[in-house]
Task: inverse folding
């Protein structure tokens, strides 16, 4: 981190733990003081500039991992005709072109658990046109065939581990891709403070930050779960936000309001992904959000080319440890 | 622990490969040799994206004069192209016979015969196709001056490879008189092409003591040695690789397991005992078939199923392509990745064009026909290339970012490219003169 010359004594070179921790604490204290001084100086400079009526000096942009993400050649470009051709040709295009309305079949893994059904009932509320079937002891391949004959467009399997939902398998039908996600940080509706109740209007879908080819394909898979004609008057929005290969799921109801404030005040917003109001002038229209429905994060484990088939399946993308060699490389 | 420091990849020797994908596009990837190899780039793209024209199999006959490339598409047509320019010389469309439409019975294997001499000058070629239901056909195809509608004098020697089951893989050996077929429910069988008879059929390995046996499902097969048609390597769906010897017995001689998904591609090496295997999760490894031991695996970021592996006939390079839309080139000896080219679609096949020569390695010989046409193609169509710094394979793809984007840079950069090539050529010329 901080470059030291060769002659200086690094704390890591000291063998005595007491002394080493003392020197390290001293160093950290120094750094903290310096940082505080810098911030004070910067604030003073800004205040002075504002008083004088000039431009305040520009703030430095902090370096984040997203800023320094490695260049990825698989990022989709807006003028790529091959991308459009591939989109037209892939398995999801018939749903996305509104030729079929999506119908979803939700089921669980074989050994059911306590927290499973609660999550599933919430999923049934979130995704319109979905039905729940108990698993029994059917083979997953047989379930896929059954769903095909009954004309479903997707199959979702919720897998539980240690009595908590753990993984999500989204299978497109008839021979669509299979996406396997790891599910974590699940918060059910009853555990959210001041939650709202979702209505049955068709939701709007927000997909953020799915930039690469793989991300684009996953985005289309998620898009094919929801009907393509959102009901804007229902004011219901479902968000899948991708950041650093984690997909965050949120479900809100929103309402537009005009607020009259002078300086920067935060409006009452829950949920941080959508717009909030920071007003400098008088009247502004802001959207207030109320969270309803579950909240969870997904991470893609593998994407398989056909329907679920571990033995003879071909994987389009599978995570391998040799891909993790850089902290600044993301795949979605 | 995976490697966290980037290793300098040595760069690619000059080569040219053609890749075929699921939308029917044929992309030509070339690596020009510089002083120390350079990164391969897509120089051409032939065809329009259209899912019914998805390429299922391809075969190249790359001789010096009049090379040909045969491509089998999903709609049932087999097209013969010129691999240098990409124009269609002939097209054989599969007439629906027996009431079976070509979409239901897609072509699985294709081979263009490298027959010498007389056939070629008169402008005809022989093609062997095999479909999933087992209809194998040899067709003679003559090209006239107009590409469509060549008189495909269908001296169709047609035979049925299997009664039931689907044929999934087929290969013709180097002497072009034997062909091996295998598939789901179809045991490996070897046919003599000239006579059209089956000369050998494999037997499944015996059931184990619980009475369990895995049903036959071969997903890839190849002949092991180019001058011996008797040894065959086949990969199965249950991640098993088997070596069969026709002269020895009908059961496999050696069989071993490789990882956990189906073996999708097998390619033999020129030395007659090494094979390269690619499976459904993107693992690529080389095995010594005399002992059945793994020589090593090719570690790189291949994350999609490998659909096809090709070995360059002269350089120690193999190419693998698959569902992750990358064409990767590997060095055989060190098993290091040389480079990866992102090609945007699911790739189905790759072949090498071994007549690609570069001016750096070439003595001034303007009568060499292949080299001239290749050069013409390049100066015309080459994309804006950033200066050849010695970079890692990922970072150097900036040159390709401009593909399909703004055209305003192309003019200036083309000029620069031409100037650079001229300079190089003159340098090389001087160098050679000095040596002499």
Result:
């Amino acid at each position: 981190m901080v470059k030291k010359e060769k002659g200086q004594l690094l704390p890591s070179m000291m063998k005595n733990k007491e002394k080493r921790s003392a020197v390290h604490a001293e160093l950290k204290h120094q750094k903290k003081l310096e940082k505080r001084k810098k911030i004070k100086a910067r604030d003073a400079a800004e205040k002075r500039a504002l008083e004088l009526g000039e431009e305040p000096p520009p703030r430095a942009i902090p370096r984040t991992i997203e800023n320094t993400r490695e260049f990825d050649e698989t990022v989709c470009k807006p003028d790529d005709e091959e991308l459009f051709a591939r989109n037209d040709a892939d398995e999801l295009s018939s749903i996305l072109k509104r030729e079929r309305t999506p119908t979803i079949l939700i089921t669980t893994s074989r050994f059911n658990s306590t927290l499973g059904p609660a999550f599933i009932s919430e999923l049934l509320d979130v995704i319109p046109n979905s039905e729940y079937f108990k698993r029994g002891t059917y083979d997953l391949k047989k379930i896929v065939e059954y769903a095909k004959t009954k004309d479903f467009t997707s199959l979702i399997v919720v897998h539980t581990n240690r009595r908590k939902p753990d993984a999500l398998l989204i299978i497109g039908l008839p021979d669509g891709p299979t996406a396997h996600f790891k599910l974590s940080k699940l918060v059910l509706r009853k555990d959210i403070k001041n939650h709202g109740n979702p209505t049955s209007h068709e939701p709007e879908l927000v997909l953020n930050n799915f930039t690469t080819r793989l991300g684009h394909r996953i985005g289309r898979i998620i898009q094919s779960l929801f009907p393509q004609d959102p009901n804007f008057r229902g004011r219901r929005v479902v968000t899948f936000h991708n950041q650093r290969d984690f997909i965050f799921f949120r479900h809100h109801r929103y309402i537009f309001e005009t607020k009259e404030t002078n300086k920067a005040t935060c409006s009452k917003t829950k949920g941080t992904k959508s717009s909030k109001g920071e007003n400098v002038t008088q009247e502004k229209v802001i959207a207030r959000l109320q969270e309803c429905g579950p909240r969870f994060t997904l991470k893609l484990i593998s994407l398989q080319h056909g329907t679920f088939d571990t033995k003879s399946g071909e994987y389009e993308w599978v995570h391998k440890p040799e891909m993790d060699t850089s902290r600044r490389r993301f795949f979605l | 622990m995976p490697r966290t420091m980037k290793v300098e990849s040595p760069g690619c020797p000059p080569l040219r490969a053609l890749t075929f994908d699921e939308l029917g596009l044929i992309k030509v990837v070339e690596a020009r040799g510089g002083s120390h190899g350079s990164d391969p780039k897509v120089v051409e793209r032939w065809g329009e994206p259209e899912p019914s024209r998805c390429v299922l199999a391809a075969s190249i006959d790359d001789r010096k004069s009049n090379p040909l490339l045969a491509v089998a598409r999903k709609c049932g047509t087999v097209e013969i192209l010129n691999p240098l320019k990409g124009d269609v010389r002939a097209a054989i469309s599969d007439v629906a016979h027996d009431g079976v439409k070509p979409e239901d019975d897609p072509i699985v294997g294709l081979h263009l015969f490298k027959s010498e001499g007389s056939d070629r000058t008169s402008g005809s070629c022989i093609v062997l196709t095999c479909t999933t239901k087992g209809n194998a056909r040899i067709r003679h195809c003559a090209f006239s001056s107009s590409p469509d509608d060549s008189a495909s004098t269908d001296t169709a020697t047609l035979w049925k490879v299997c009664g039931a089951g689907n044929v999934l893989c087929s290969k013709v050996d180097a002497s072009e008189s034997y062909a091996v077929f295998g598939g789901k429910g179809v045991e490996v069988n070897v046919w003599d092409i000239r006579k059209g008879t089956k000369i050998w059929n494999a037997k499944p390995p015996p059931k184990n003591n619980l009475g369990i046996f895995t049903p036959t499902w071969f997903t890839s097969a190849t002949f092991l040695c180019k001058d011996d048609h008797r040894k065959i390597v086949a990969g199965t769906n249950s991640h098993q690789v088997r070596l069969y010897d026709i002269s020895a017995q009908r059961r496999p001689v050696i069989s071993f397991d490789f990882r956990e998904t189906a073996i999708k591609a097998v390619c033999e090496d020129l030395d007659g005992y090494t094979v390269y295997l690619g499976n459904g999760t993107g693992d690529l490894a080389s095995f010594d078939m005399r002992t059945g031991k793994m020589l090593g695996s090719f570690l790189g970021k291949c994350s999609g199923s490998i659909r096809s592996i090709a070995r360059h006939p002269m350089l120690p390079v193999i190419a693998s392509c698959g569902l992750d839309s990358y064409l990767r080139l590997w060095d055989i000896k060190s098993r290091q990745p040389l480079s990866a080219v992102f090609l945007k679609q699911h790739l189905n096949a790759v072949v090498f064009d071994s007549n690609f020569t570069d001016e750096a390695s070439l003595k001034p010989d303007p009568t060499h026909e292949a080299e001239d046409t290749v050069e013409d193609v390049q100066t015309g169509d080459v994309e804006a290339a950033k200066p050849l710094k010695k970079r890692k394979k990922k970072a150097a793809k900036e040159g390709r970012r401009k593909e399909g984007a703004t055209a305003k840079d192309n003019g200036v950069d083309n000029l620069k490219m031409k100037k650079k090539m001229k300079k190089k050529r003159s340098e090389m010329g001087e160098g050679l003169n000095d040596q002499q």
